Amino acid sequence: MSRPWVIGITGASGAAYGVRLSSYLLSQGLEIHLMITDAGWRVLKEELGWDITKRKEAIQQQFGSHPEKLHYHTIQDIGASTASGSFRTSGMVVIPCSMGTLSSIASGASDNLLERSADVMLKEGRPLIIVPRETPLHAIHLENMLKLSRLGVKLIPAMPAFYQGPQTIEDMVDFIVGKVLDSMGIEHELFKRWGTQTHKSVTQVAE
Questions:
Q1: Does 11 show up as a binding residue in the annotation?
Q2: 37 assigned ligand-binding residue
Q3: What is the pLDDT of residue 198?
Q4: Where does FMN bind (predicted)?
Q5: Given Cys at both, which of 4, 160, 162, 193 links 31, Cβ 3.0 to 4.6 Å?
Q6: Residue 203: its pLDDT value, please?
Q7: Is 133 labelled as part of a ligand binding site?
Q8: Is 101 annotated as a binding residue?
Q9: How far apart are CA 120 and CA 39, in angstroms?
Q10: Is position 2 annotated in a ligand binding site?
Q11: Which is the CATH superfamily of the domain at 5-206?
């Protein structure tokens, strides 16, 4: 029996990545524990047009077709199940991850449930996947990412590729989510893999 995945959405641009990953996991019958920072809620409103005045209702509206597999925790609920190492999970994905949250995880801070859940993954030796979304990057960002990489964290920057000939924003989102799913060990067909397609040039795609 598969164990649940923990999904964290922060205030970095790219909320669609976290929503798409969560939706895909639920569609495959997998259980997730979802948490969203306050800044993450702001980005969901600004980028995806979510009504965030009633957060639990917004979650229900987006993921309501899989209520038995979705566990939503408020970011302040430091006593939630994922805050304890005794709660067994498959791992955690922070997608997208702001540089502020990345810094907190790298320094071992546990000021909210997302940071504490990530700290649990590190101390228990479970998979922790982070999708940083920022540009340009300065030395502190890079040093924090290097520190986490040395701890075994998988870093998948939100850098869409073009060799698969993306036609829509959704195609570009699916590429990043697909790369995350690869690292999670979950099968998918969200993008065409290199060597399995007729490649288009960037000029052809633009036309």
A1: yes
A2: yes
A3: 55
A4: 11-13, 37, 98-101, 133
A5: 4
A6: 52
A7: yes
A8: yes
A9: 22
A10: no
A11: Flavin prenyltransferase-like (3.40.50.1950)
